[in-house]
Amino acid sequence: MKKEKLNVRALALLMAFVLVMGFMPLLSMAGNEEPGENAEEMILYAGQDIEVGTVTVWNDAEYIYVHYELNQYAIDEGWYLTEIHVHVGEELGDFPLAGRWGNPVPGQFDYKEYFDLEDEVTEYTVEIDLGDWGFGAELIIAAHAVIEKIECELVEEAPYSPSEVIDYEQGVRKDGTPVREGRSNPEAVLTYDLGRDETNFFSLGFKFDDEGNVEDEGGWIIVKFDCPIQNGEGYDIMVVEDTWGTYPIETANVYASQDGEEWVYLGEADNEERDPDHNIHTVSYFDLEDVGMEWAKYIKVVDTTPIEPMPNDGDGYDLNVVLALQDCYECTYYDETAWAAYEPGEIRFTERGNWATYFEYTVACEEVQLLQNPGAEEGMDYWEYTEDVVRSIGERQQSTGWVYPRTGDYFFDMTESPASYASMWQEVDVSGYGGCPFTAGGWIQTEWLLGDEPGDVDDHDYGQLIVTFYDSDGDELESFDSGPIGNPVKGVDPYDYDTGAEQYDEFELTGYVPDGAVSAVYELEGYLVEGAYINVFYEDLYFWVGK
User: Fold this and answer.
1) Beta carbons within 8 Å of 26's beta carbon, 6+ residues apart
2) Residue 350 sits in the same domain as residue 381
3) What is the CATH number of the domain that holds 506?
4) Cα separation values, 300 from 203, 225, 250, Å
5) How would you classify the pairing of strands 476-481 and 462-470?
6) Does residue 426 contact residue 383 with C-beta atoms inside 8 Å?
7) Residue 5: which pLDDT band, with cuts at 50, 70 and 90?
8) What is the pTM of this model?
9) From CA 293, how far away is CA 313, in angstroms rounded?
10) Which residues pair with 282 in a beta bridge?
11) C-alpha span between 537 and 504 (Å, rounded)
12) Which of 25, 103, 367, 522 counts the most CB atoms within 10 A of its CB?
């Protein structure tokens, strides 16, 4: 949809584009979260059926994340996000609707973000507090966006001169007589004339009060630029004056305005700096940045030349031209509304009215590994354990060979000193995960006791996993156990152990986190069957919720 033709605000925006395009990366705004395995991706459609990006939705235990991202097609076409509106409810009645047909009102959605076009936003993530929506909650989400672009055409290449003289008041010469006719044409300031001719400039002249005293400000002139002067890189305005040869100082105050009514002082022009290419002209430069202006449409030049050093026929500041030093563009804004959907027009709020869409989302259990230091790489940090029995170790020699880590450099060992029973445990936070599936387990290796037949697992030293859930009062809600676990390893010859992952066997417990659970204890046990040391070794442990 075409939005509007170039105006002064558009020009200011354009100049920001001109300055940054080509060396400024596209600005991307996004949260710190990355989409989880439960993420669902919708298409962001503009104009009902044009794919301009995606909207990806996922959640963790605290938030729903709605991530907008424009595709390369949209970016190449110059589109950027300028508005984002998101609303979440359990039924359509939870949405702000209006009109006979019940069309949604994006401006009244609960979650809104607005960006300037010059920020070039291509992606953004909205975080929505889950609140009372627990895992398994079936929700409706509407994700709306406005995308905009600006297309510009160069219409005036800098430097360019004013379009017209709006008003002027010429003073007189020092002796009070009128300025010569050749120097009195205000239209002369609309072009940069290079010849040595007094018709090429407009002399502003002096002004006297009723008592014959010279006033601080003399004659003046106001010019207008149809394409406003822009605040760009470097100087924006050049005021050119004619001084032929050696001559006393001539000065003028220079003002800028956007409406021709309110004026901002830019500084003083004088005849001291010669144009290096045209020696009969002097130049003065001004920067709109210095006075906080993004653009100016009108320039006013007022004579302030000191009268004393002037000859009797002196007529003050001789203005040749005012030049704009930034290129002038004509720009057009475009905007489009966009909605996230599975397919074009699916699912619409109403079959009549506008084409706004929504999609359905079920709050998923976040997949999280709750254990810290699950592979003994940090010693026994984060674990409680039977002291002097359980330890982290890099290798262990057994009667049937050597035990080595399955991965990394360490594993958990229960043979530091003689014992008949040992355990290690870690308490984890499961708040908010009630009803979510869990998977707890790891890898175990045990030593094959002497004998040709393996027998049962508990005919050798063995282990066991127990997972117990507790409520906020510390009362037990439910407990799960694996029963005896092990992987008795026997070498072909004494000390002929194969090493690595093949010597470990995986064990696993599955179930659901009880409602109301706030903590859980993951506990591994070791039992002695024969001898003095518990030959039970654990590696690569895990306690997942959400899968």
Assistant:
1) 75, 120, 122
2) no
3) 2.60.120.260
4) 14, 12, 16
5) antiparallel
6) yes
7) very low
8) 0.61
9) 38
10) 241, 274
11) 9
12) 522
Q: Distance between CA 334 and CA 1 in Å, rounded?
A: 6
The number of folded domains in the chain is 3
> Given a cut of 80, is residue 21 above it in pLDDT?
no
Per-residue tokens: 383: 């674990």
In angstroms, what CA-CA distances link 386 with 233, 373, 391, 465? Answer: 71, 17, 9, 15
Sign of CA dihedral 112, 115, 121, 122: positive
Which domain covers residue 283, as residue numbers? 158-326
How remote is the C-alpha of 90 from its chain's centroid? Answer: 29
Comparing 130 with 428, the larger pLDDT belongs to: 428
What is the Cβ-side half-sphere exposure of residue 475, based on CA atoms within 13 angstroms?
Answer: 5
C-alpha distances out from residue 252 to 27, 262, 283, 534, 538, Å: 43, 19, 12, 98, 88
Same domain (yes/no): 465, 528: yes
Strands 437-447 and 488-489: parallel
Domain boundary at 275, 309, 326, which? 326
Q: Looking at the structure, do residues 89 and 238 belong to the same domain, yes or no? A: no
- The reply to whether 349 and 292 lie within a common domain is no
Give the helix ranges, DSSP H, for 257-406.
none
Residues 253 and 350 in one domain: no
Q: Last residue of some domain: 314, 344, 362?
A: 362
Looking at the fold, whether 476 and 418 belong to one and the same domain comes out as: yes
H-run or E-run covering 18: helix 8-20
**Separation between Cα atoms, residue 111 and residue 104, nearest integer Å:** 14
CA distances (Å), origin 14, targets 227, 240, 332, 362, 547: 12, 27, 10, 43, 51
Residue-level length of the chain: 547
Cα four-point dihedral sign 425, 429, 433, 434 = positive
Do 75 and 108 belong to one domain? yes
Is residue 11 predicted with pLDDT exceeding 50?
A: no
Residues 387 and 411 in one domain: yes
- For residue 408, count other CB atoms closer than 10 A to its CB: 12
Q: What is the pLDDT of residues 480-510, one digit of tens each?
A: 999 999 988 765 554 455 545 578 999 999 9
3-state secondary structure 357-406: ECEEEECCCCCEECCCCCCCCCCCCCCEECCCCCEEECCEEECCEEECCC
